[in-house]
Each structure stands twice: as C-alpha cells, then as structure tokens.
Design brief:
By secondary structure, the chain is an alpha+beta fold. InterPro entries: DNA/RNA_pol_sf, GAG-pre-integrase_dom, Integrase_cat-core, PolX-like_BBD, RNaseH-like_sf, RNaseH_sf, RVT_2.
Length: 788
C-alpha cells in the first residue's frame, strides 16, 4: 500500500474497497496499480497489485502476501531479507517504531526518484559509499565546499563494510636482523610491468641463473613464505600498493568511484581468500552474500567473455539471464517409502556455434548426481557406444572419393528422449522449488542428464527409430547406419551422442532423412558439415579432396600453456631425440619442481589432436606419454613398421601402423609391444600381426559401407618377417613366439590379406616408431596425406 499517486507506473481507479487500520479506522482504496522499485542491488523490480491509500502516512509491504507468493522472509541482526530460492530480491533495515525500511528507491517515468524520507544518518552513509568509503573528515570538507549537492554531513555511524574490508592478518612476530656492515642484508622485491601479477618467493628469485650468481658471489638468501609479504615488509612497503577491498562490500553503490581489484569473500565470516595461485585471472564465481556487487576490471587479463555461471543465482542475475532459462518437465510427488532421492545441481555451458551457421548457444540444465544411484535398484545396464573416429574418417574418405553431399545435425536435449525403465526420484532443482511443497521430490518422466542409464536409453531409442526406417546398423561400429537405395546409391548416418553426420549422393535423400528425424526428435539443422568433434572440415570438390584441420583446437591448447609465441619446428621430435627413465626427475628438488609443471595436462591435450587428425604426432605422443605417471587411390592400403628394443628402459619393441584410403590416413596406432622380442624379425612379425587385426576390422566395416573398397595389401619393409608369415622355415628360431601371433599365417594362407615388401624410404609407418630427419619426416607426411 502507498499514499503516493506519483509513484505508480500503471494505475486503475477503483470505487470499492477499504483498509482497516490498527485503531479500527477504515481508509478508502482509491486505486490499484504497479510500482517499480530500484532495489539495493541495482535491479529494478515491479511490485504488482499495490493499493493506493491516500490517507496512509507510510508505504507498507505485506510480508504475508510475499510468503503466499513463494518468497522467504528472514530477519537477522536488524536486517530483513526477502529471497526467492537462494536469490535475495529485497532488503530492509530496522529503524524506529520497530519497522523495517526498504533499501531502494522508486522509479517513475524511467527516472530514479530518491526517497524523501532519508534521514541525516542515511544521507551521510549514502555519500560515504558513493565516495568509496571516504572518511568523515573528508566528507565534512567536501560539504563545506558545497560539493555534495548542499547536503549536510553529520557524524558517521559504524560502517561494518569498512571494518570487515580492512581487516588484516594477525601480526607476525617481529624478526630482528642485526647487521654489522653495509649491504650485509638486502631487502628486494619486483614491481612491473603493470598489471602482471607477481608473488614473493617467485621464480624470478629461484631461477638457475640467479642461483649460480648467488653461489659464486657468496650471497645468502632468505626466502619468504608464500603469500606472506609481511615478512618482506621493507621492500613491499616501498611500492605502496594497497587493495581497498572493502569498497566492493557495499549495498547499493551503482558505480565504484575507483577501479579496484575485486577479490570477494566466499564465506559469511568475511575472510578474504586471495591466496589462490592461478594461471588465468577470472571474475569470482561465488559471493559472500547476495547483496555484494562486483565490478569487472577493464583489464584484458580479467575479462572473460565466455565466463559461464557457476550456479542458478548467477545465471538469473547475469546479463544473459533470459538465454539461460528453459522449461523442464517432471511430476512433483511425495517420496514413497523405501525410495532413495537422487540429488541434482545446475550446470551452465556456453556452446560455441558453427561460424556462419548458428550463434553461440546458452545451455542451462539441471543434472542428476548419478554417482548416488544404487546398482540394481536405480539402474541395470549402462553401456552405450559412440562412433569411432576411424569410422568418421572412413566416411570422409568415401565422401571425397564419390563426391557425396555431407551435412550435419544436432539433437537437442538428446538424453531427454530416452525412456526410463525404473522410477527415479530426484530432489527439486534450485530455483524451481514449489511453494508449500518443499519436502516433495521430482518423479522423472524420461531419462535425465548424468543418470547412469541415460546414454543407453537414448541409444536404444535412436536405434529403434533408425531400424524402423530401413536403415541397417553396422556390425563393426554400432553408431554407423546405412541404407542402400534402389539405384545402388547409399545413405550413410553416423552419430556421436547428439552430433550427427549424413552423407548421400543427392541432397533430396538427405532432406528426406532430416524430415524423418525432425518428426521424432527435436533437431537443429546445421547445414553442410563444417566442424565435427573439434575437427574442421574443408571440402574441395574440384579436386575431390576433403581436408581435416584442428587449427582452432591446437591454438587453444597453445594458449592454455602460454606457448602461442613458440617457434614452430619441422618435426615433432628431432631425429636424435631419445627418452629414457634416466632423464626423469631423481632428486627431491627435481621431483618438487616437476610437480608444478603441467606435463600430463600438456600431453593429454595433444592426445585428442593425435587421435582425430594428426597421425604424425603418434610416435611423439607415444614417446612422451610413457613418462607420465605411388599408391593405388581406390584401395585401402596398410603400412606397418617396428623399432626393435626402442624402449631403453624395458627393452621392448615399438609397433606402428597406418591405413590410408585415397592417399589419406584413416586409422593409425603407435604402441609398445607386450613382450620383449629377441630379434628385429620377431618385432616386425608381431607388428604385422597387430596391423592385420586392424585390417580385418576395417575390411568388415568397408564391406558394409562400400563393396568396391577392399583391403588387400599391407606393406612391410622387412623381407624376413614377410617370409615368416608365409611358412615355418624359421621354426627353431621362432618356436618361442606366443601362438596368438601365428594366426596371421592362416589369414594370409586364405588370401584375405597380402603382406608385401616396400622400401623403408617409402614406408610412412616409419614415423610411427622413431624420430626422423626433416626430409624423411615430411616425405612420410606426404605419403599419408597430412599437410602442415
């Protein structure tokens, strides 16, 4: 209720209705409308169904009405907070007469009108916050000069934000260093370049060059404890660098008077958690209280346009809040007895769109904490396959050879299409808790993200749909579907979870499949395929070639490890480069130093590039990962090689093979052999066996996808090993070889696979097993169609 007619943004006159006051007097209601209020956090919210009562002396908000609307009211330490879920939407400060005064101001005709009921104490506090928590003496001086709009400044009351923001660590015991001569004890620190974070006990004072200098000159260093600049107070004080953190711990300041480095406490105790070592500076993801306001620094290192919300409260309060919201369907029921609730949480993701096709997508979804599910009760079978990368590259090879059309689709909320076979009860997600049913749970109608059985249920649903539309499922790859038309042409469909590729000779066939899919599932048509699983697709129809590139992914990896300015090299590993465990950290100091080097992360990041499109990285990856804790164009050709005793530690040999179609690599591998071999012949023999196993799988795949493609030949550069695959002339020297390696003899005897001799210089598998000189390495890349 409000007596101020000017505050209403919408207004409707009413002729009936009265309000009964506490003294039994009745006041007539003149009208009903809405009032816009700019709250403490700067957000303008609308109060609806506000009664206009001219006889009132104060504006009143009914807490019981807010409670019936699903809002929660909490009064503590003289502050009343109104919240919806975990988001505080209104705040009131307790004043005289035991009433709470709303912290905010009305908005009329898009102009903020300050409340005329502000007391002198409120005016003083307001200017105190506007001026970046200026001292009382400073504000009095500004008032005397008439710089505060004629406002008088009274005594400044207690400001909790100044106290909490300026709190310091407990003082250290004073260290006394008695010196007897000049320059015997030197305090030093670094400053600059500007906006580059530096810390005590940093590597600038611990480098090998500086260590040698100190040792040669007889200098003794006293390194301070990390994140304790107080120990080096003399040097630190010289730079006079202070963080005024209390300035962000305010209530309704619309714009800070100074640009400050924001570090926000994440717990109600107001402890400043700023001793976090980071390689990348990002805005804080958690706030101490809902009324804290943080300002983004206009510093390049601190701005992250792709920053994703951490929880529901951040998602609905950010500038893209409308894009994060979407509808979810479930049934709210009472939890049956003997049933366990599966917990959940919100996950927010900004998915990069396809350039020129779609804009970035904002995806907000509650996910179930599947690890709390009980096997046999909440789920049974969980296995669900995905299409192999080799199958994707095989399809690309067919598309390039036969000049097929290739288009891409995306299944929206794929896991929601699966049908649950069990009753799953999940807690109500944050922000969607039904009023007066807080103890109820969600009975899921369909499969849900991160449930153990969700991928399998989606797979079963999709497979049932495809087979009902005359598509056959490959027996060699579960997510490869194909259909043969009456004219002999094929339609291919590959699925990787929710990313889909469709290839056919005619776009009419593709549109037909798209229409069928759209009738059953909610699809997003991405048009001609340009990017799949991080692989960029470049098609040159004039020369019947299709190129795969992971330039964007590799550039992100380089930026992640600060190597975007690194000098490029011609080969992944130099020809003389050999690794062994003797080069691993040995001393405690070396182990401690390497614990801070992201070695495993760097190797793992490049592994995906190697698996997808970079066979030239196979040997390099195989080598470094051990120490983490004139071809025929219309055939599939294999190349195999072995490096005898290439592992200097275990003396095991290395197997490497690569298969090509149309001169482009589609499948490759570089791995250590499981047993130690006694000769080069044995190593090559075992390598041929491993290559034949892959050839058999590829042969079966291509027999379904394209009958014209055959795998007939595997090339090896060891004549002795080839003779060994054909007969047992070396029986006495090879009788100790495991019998499982001899199955290759039956394969070759039946004529399924032919193993032929090739020159070492023309064997591209050579780069899979050893480091090569630049010329040889570039030649091997050319043999498998890899262009850097």
């Amino acid at each position: 209720m409000s007596p101020n007619r000017d505050w209403f943004t919408t207004y409707e006159t009413v002729s009936e209705g009265v309000v009964l006051m506490g003294n039994n007097a009745s006041c007539k209601i003149a009208g009903v409308g809405t009032i816009k209020v700019k709250m403490f956090d700067g957000v303008v919210r609308t109060l609806s169904e506000v009664r206009h009562v001219p006889e009132l002396n104060r504006n009143l908000i009914s807490l019981s009405t807010l409670d019936s609307k699903g809002y929660r009211c909490i009064a503590e330490s003289g502050v009343l907070k109104i919240s919806k879920g975990s988001l505080v939407v209104m705040k009131g400060q307790r004043k005289t007469a035991k009433l709470y005064v709303l912290q905010g101001s009305t908005v009329t005709s898009d102009v903020v009108v300050a409340s005329s009921s502000l007391s002198d104490d409120d005016i003083t506090k307001l200017w105190h916050m506007r001026l970046g928590h200026m001292s009382e003496n400073g504000m009095v001086e500004l008032s005397k000069r008439g710089l505060l709009d004629g406002q008088e400044i009274c005594k400044l009351n207690f400001c909790e934000h100044c106290v909490f923001g300026k709190q310091k660590r407990v003082r250290f015991t004073i260290g006394i260093h008695n010196t007897k001569g000049t320059l015997e004890y030197i305090h030093s620190d670094l400053w600059g370049p500007s906006r580059v974070p530096s810390r005590d006990n940093g590597l600038e004072f611990c480098s090998d060059d500086f260590n040698r200098l100190c040792k040669s000159e007889g200098i003794v260093r006293h390194l301070t404890v990390r994140h304790s600049p107080q120990q080096n107070g003399i040097a630190e004080r010289s730079w006079r660098r202070f963080d005024v953190e209390h300035q962000i711990n305010t209530e309704s300041t619309p714009q800070a008077s100074t640009k400050i480095e924001n570090r926000v406490a994440s717990l109600p105790q107001y402890s400043i958690a700023k001793n976090r070592t980071r390689r990348e500076i990002k805005p804080p993801k958690k706030y101490a209280e809902a009324d804290l306001v943080a300002y983004a620094l206009n510093v390049a290192e601190d701005i992250d346009a792709n920053q994703e919300p951490f929880n529901y409260s951040e998602a609905i309060s950010c500038e893209d809040s409308e894009k994060w919201m979407f509808a979810i369907t479930w049934d709210i029921v009472k939890l049956p007895k003997d049933k366990k609730v599966v917990r959940c949480k919100w996950v927010f993701k900004k998915k990069e769109g396809t350039p020129g096709v779609e804009e970035p997508r904002y995806k907000a979804k509650p996910i179930a904490k599947g690890y709390s599910q009980i096997p046999g009760v909440d789920f049974t079978d969980v296995f669900s396959p995905v299409v192999k990368h080799s199958s994707i590259r095989a399809l690309f090879g067919i598309v390039a050879m036969h000049d097929l059309e290739l288009e891409q689709l995306d299944v929206k909320t794929a896991f929601f299409h699966g049908e649950l076979e069990e009753d799953i009860y999940m807690q109500q997600p944050e922000g969607f808790i039904v009023s007066e049913k807080e103890d109820y749970v969600c009975l899921l109608k369909k499969s849900f993200y991160c449930l153990k059985q969700s991928p399998r249920q989606w797979s079963k649903r999709f497979d049932s749909f495809m087979t009902s539309h005359d598509f056959k499922r490959s027996s060699f790859d579960s997510y490869v579907y194909f259909k043969k038309n009456s004219d002999g042409s094929f339609v291919y469909l590959l699925l990787y979870v929710d990313d889909m590729l469709i290839a056919a000779k005619d776009k009419v066939e593709i549109r037909k499949v798209k229409a069928q899919l759209s009738e059953e599932f909610e699809m997003k048509d991405l048009g001609p395929s340009k990017k799949i699983l991080g692989m960029e697709i470049l098609k040159d129809r004039k020369v019947s070639k299709l190129y795969l590139s992971q330039k964007g992914y590799i550039e992100k990896v380089l930026c992640r490890f600060n190597m975007q300015s690194a000098k490029p090299v011609s080969t992944p590993l130099a020809a003389h480069f050999r690794l062994s465990s003797a080069l691993s950290p040995q001393s405690d100091d070396e182990i401690e130093y390497m614990s801070h080097v992201p070695y495993s992360s760097a190797v793992g990041s490049l592994m995906y590039a190697m698996v997808c499109s970079r066979p030239d990285l196979s040997y390099a990856f195989s080598a470094v990962s051990r120490y983490m804790f004139g071809r025929t164009k219309n055939k599939v050709i294999g190349y195999v090689d072995a490096d005898f005793a290439g592992d200097l530690d275990k003396r095991r040999s290395l197997t490497g093979y690569v298969f090509t179609i149309g001169g482009c690599a589609i499948s490759w591998k570089a791995t250590l052999q499981t047993t130690v071999t006694l000769s080069t012949i044995e190593a090559e023999y075992m390598a041929i066996t491993e290559a034949c196993k892959e050839a058999i799988w590829l042969k079966g795949l291509f027999s379904e996808l394209n009958g014209d493609l055959q795998i007939s030949t595997i090339f090896c550069d060891s004549q002795s090993a080839i003779f060994l695959t054909k007969d047992q002339m070396f029986h006495e020297r090879t009788k100790h070889i495991d019998v499982r390696y001899h199955f290759i003899r039956d394969i070759i005897a039946r004529g399924d696979i032919v193993v032929s001799k090739i020159s070492t210089h023309e064997n591209p598998a050579d780069m899979m097993t050893k480091s090569l000189p630049i010329t040889k390495f570039e030649h091997c890349l050319d043999l498998v169609g890899v262009h850097c």
